[in-house]
Amino acid sequence: MNSWLQVGTDESITLTIGSSDMGQGSASGLAQVLCEDLMVDYARIQIVQGGPTLAAVAPIGTAINTVGSSVTRNNFWKLRDAGAIAREMLVTAAMNQKADLVRANFTVSNGVVHHTPSNTNLTYGQLASAAALLKPPASAPLVADSEFKSIGKPQDRKDIPLKVDGSAKYGIDIQLKGMLYAVVKHCPTFSGTLANAPAVPSGMVAAVPLSVAAGTGRGTEVAGAINAVAVVGHNTWDTWQASKDLSVTWNIPAGAANLDNAHFLATAQALAASAPAYVAGGTNPAGTCYTVEGNATSAAAAIAGSAKILDATYVLPYVSHACMEVLNCTVDYVPGVRCDVYAPTQSAKAALALVVQLTGLLESQITIHTTFLGGGLGRKAEQDFISQAVQVGMVVKQPVKLMWPREEDFTRDQYRPMGLMHARAGLNAAGQVTGWAYRNVSPSILGQRGVPLGATGDSQGIEGAHALPYNLGAAVTEWVSHPSPIPVGFWRSVGASLNTFAVECMIDELALAAGQDPYMFRRSLLTDPRWIAVLDKAATLGNWHAPLAAGHGRGIAIGTAFNTIVAQVVEVSNVTSTRMRVNNVTVVMDCYLAVNPSFVEHQLIGGVVHGLNATLYGRQTFLKGVAQNRNFSHSRMIRMGEMPQVKVALIPNPALSDRTVKLGGAGELGVPTFAPALANACYSATKVRTRTLPFFPNATMSD
Amino acid sequence: MSTTLTLNVNGQNHTITVNDPSMPLLWAIRDLIGLTGTKYGCGIEICGACTVLVDGQPEKSCDMDVSSAAGRAIVTIEGLSANRTHPAQVAWIKHQVPQCGYCQSGVLMSVAGAMQAGHTGSSIASEVQNLCVCCTYQRMREAIAGL
Ligand code: FES
Ligand code: FES
Description:
The complex is a heterodimer.
Chain A: E1 5-7, E2 13-17, H1 26-38, E3 45-49, H2 71-98, E4 106-109, E5 112-115, E6 120-123, H3 124-132, E7 180-186, E8 193-194, E9 206-211, E10 226-233, H4 236-245, E11 250-251, H5 261-273, E12 289-294, H6 296-304, E13 308-316, E14 328-334, E15 338-343, H7 348-359, E16 366-370, H8 384-396, E17 400-403, H9 406-411, E18 419-427, E19 433-442, H10 445-448, E20 474-481, H11 496-513, H12 518-525, H13 529-541, E21 553-561, E22 564-573, E23 581-590, H14 597-616, E24 622-623, E25 626-627, E26 645-650, H15 674-686
Parallel strand pairs in A: 2-3, 7-17, 15-16, 19-20, 23-26
Antiparallel strand pairs in A: 1-2, 4-5, 5-6, 7-10, 8-11, 9-10, 12-20, 13-18, 14-15, 14-17, 18-19, 21-22, 22-23, 24-25
Helix pairs in contact in A: 1-2, 2-3, 7-8, 11-15
Chain B: E1 3-9, E2 12-18, H1 25-33, E3 51-54, E4 57-60, H2 66-69, E5 73-75, H3 87-94, H4 104-116, H5 122-125, H6 137-145
Parallel strand pairs in B: 1-5
Antiparallel strand pairs in B: 1-2, 3-4, 3-5
One FE2/S2 (inorganic) cluster (FES) sits between chains B (98-104, 132-134, 136) and A (23, 324, 375).
């Protein structure tokens, strides 16, 4: 029917997708949308990931990175239309064959076109060749909501059987004939570069210096710098040992001495107090203050005249991604002929452009094979590891799989940015908010990618801090670019994971200062009925008003990201300086329409715990440019026994499909509201306010 | 100095040659035998992604020398059952447990080991210490409850 939807004469139906499924179920979700209007059973749709080549007409989803919880919401209407159009082409082929041009005489059920007058059937497979010759209509009628068989219904994910028997192939599982193994060793210090090319260790095939390809370096890692070496050998283990033993001399620039946490924090504190304002057309170096919305002078004046003034500073650390599958990429390069790249990538399209840039081959000579991803979390949208594998492939000219040991994965991440958020607000005697001044100081993800920042700063950095739904009186939101050059990147929910923490903790502090219940206080500041409905539902389902046992605390938070509103209620107990018990979490989400409520629920629960791990334990620290946490031993995460019971509700339910309502994302939404709900719950349990995360920075983990 | 040894994996003998007899079983299974269902996660015995059964016991293969595994009965996820019929696999599909799925081979081998040792239901859960970065623990718990 076109290059990404194929109806075969053998009755097969194949959907080729270009986006990546990291376990969020979006590939199956896309099939679920398509089958509705194509009128075939979900079970019949085969999903193929990545195109054979991206140079052909792009498969659906390739135009985007798999980031921003976007796969389903960006493709929903596209797929519905495509399914309907394809169906009508097949029906037209049947009409031609039956020489009956009355559309009403034909019905479709699971890929079989029934001709009522003759009581005969034609299958999609029988009609496929004739339909392929027809011109697609511009549009075709969609299935009515009341007739939905697939959309909004839980369906089994197509990838799950492969994930219970070891047959799912992740990037790290690729094995090609005659393949070599490469293990990466970076300069341990950010900004350091190779002093001399090392000799090839005995028994090894090569030691390849790796440079930062244009467009892939962030912060300290500038294009052209040689910041790593890959040792190449015949199996992972021997190569890894040789790489550990390899003695390499690095040049460390003097500035690396300042790349440490204490320095970053002091800089952030200074910039929170004062930072030069953005000047249109000016150079606006790092350290510039951007006004995102509102006016600082009027906010300050409103706050100054208040009955009560609250002032609080929240500090969040750098956090690693720690995908379960370490970074890796396999390359099969034949000079001047072709390059095949097998990668767990969230951005096959960017990978293609990179391979063109590095090899000089034509797009048509390059194939990007997107494998399963053992977690992506934003990290696998980056291209550094792919660039390194291509560089090695071009040297060894035979298939080679490059991998990062876990220690490299932790110490050479592009981290969630650290952030220092300062909030100041006033209350009048009636307990209403008179003014709100909010300033976020954090390194710029987009700035490190060369995206020019406009008057309102980094659009990613301010997610969750602006367009707040609350009535906050005279308000201002500012964002200051922190100059730290430690590489930063997209981490599940991005800026919302910082700002929602600060905003929702501050709202809680205001509620308590006003002597009000934190839930009712939020409710009194809200006017948007969708927000109120989500908040109310969370309070009801989370038993907000139920009495608390001694030592227990309950916290609430609400926020938005990617067009979706989420509220959580968290209950904790046994809070000490080294541990706490998270007993229950209630999550209510309005993403408008959930294609598969079961996937969405699973994603939300995963997001909650991802948020939990980060809130309790997650941080990366730096000393003289060297990342200190090198493995899970110092980046604790919970295990099954510590898992709280998580309840999820999706509203509205059911949602009508309506082209005018923007669909919301789901994959990242469990994260942002968890941290503030937890911090608020801890305050309720202990009456001690935690404003710096993580709660337990020195927690460790062993076997 | 290379050593030749025989590994019994999923009931089949494989003769392999290693330069380093302390190569962890994990890498022998993956790179030399070519069974990639067993995963590398941390390499330091924390995450459990590399869990296999050795003589019926769950073992972290990232920390077991290949030489000490020789001659013992090793079962990997590929050998857990034919056609995903092990009760844990059936429950995992029924409860749609995996997200990215990367940790799940190791989790299922831990569950299978606990079942083999006579644990049932929630007492299996306390034996399973595997890390799941996607945090699929709630569905794991639901799936385990029926075993
Ligand atoms: S890889 Fe063996 S425990 Fe993590
Ligand atoms: S399912 Fe992804 S790590 Fe467990």
